[in-house]
UniProtKB/TrEMBL annotation:
Domain of life, per lineage: Bacteria
InterPro entries the UniProt entry points to: DUF302, TT1751-like_sf, UCP021774
Source taxonomy: Bacteria, Pseudomonadati, Bacteroidota, Cytophagia, Cytophagales
Xref: PANTHER family: SLR5037 PROTEIN
Record's protein name: DUF302 domain-containing protein
Gene3D superfamilies hit by this protein: TT1751-like domain
Domain DUF302, residue spans: 36-99
Matching SUPFAM superfamilies: TT1751-like (SSF103247)
Length: 130
């Protein structure tokens, strides 16, 4: 069972890919709440070199509200992560968590249909990238 949805893009820079991803997410009702620069963090904390890599914390407030009204402890599962990794010069992988798979261990039947809808929205956002 795959826990993420991926797409490979060609672009001149990480910044251009980030803008495309942010726009695609916005069209599906998501905002980016957090952004973690893994390359910078690993360099600072471990003095290790990494290729450019970002983690965007994407949240659709309508679905977050529905999920939190069912189970307030779901805050630990929010937001949905979308990563951007440079594979090689000009080639990037965008990967989004599959919330439907992520919710399986919780066993909460009321959340399953919401997770499916969020998955569909993230899938459309990833597939819209070019």
């Amino acid at each position: 069972m795959n826990y993420h949805m991926d797409k490979i893009l060609e672009a001149a820079s990480m910044e251009l890919v980030r803008e495309k991803v942010t726009t695609a997410l916005k069209e599906e009702g998501f905002g980016v709440l957090t952004e973690i620069d893994i390359q910078a963090v690993m360099k600072k904390k471990l003095d290790k070199e990494y290729k450019p890599m970002l983690i965007l914390g994407a949240c659709n407030p309508v679905f977050a509200d529905k999920v939190l009204s069912i189970d307030p402890n779901m805050t630990a599962m929010l937001p949905c992560n979308v990563s951007i990794r440079e594979l090689s010069e000009g080639k990037f992988e965008v990967s989004a968590i599959d919330p439907e798979v992520a919710m399986v261990p919780l066993g909460n039947e009321a959340i399953k249909p919401l997770a499916k809808e969020v998955k569909e929205k993230l899938h459309r956002a990833v597939n819209a990238l070019s």
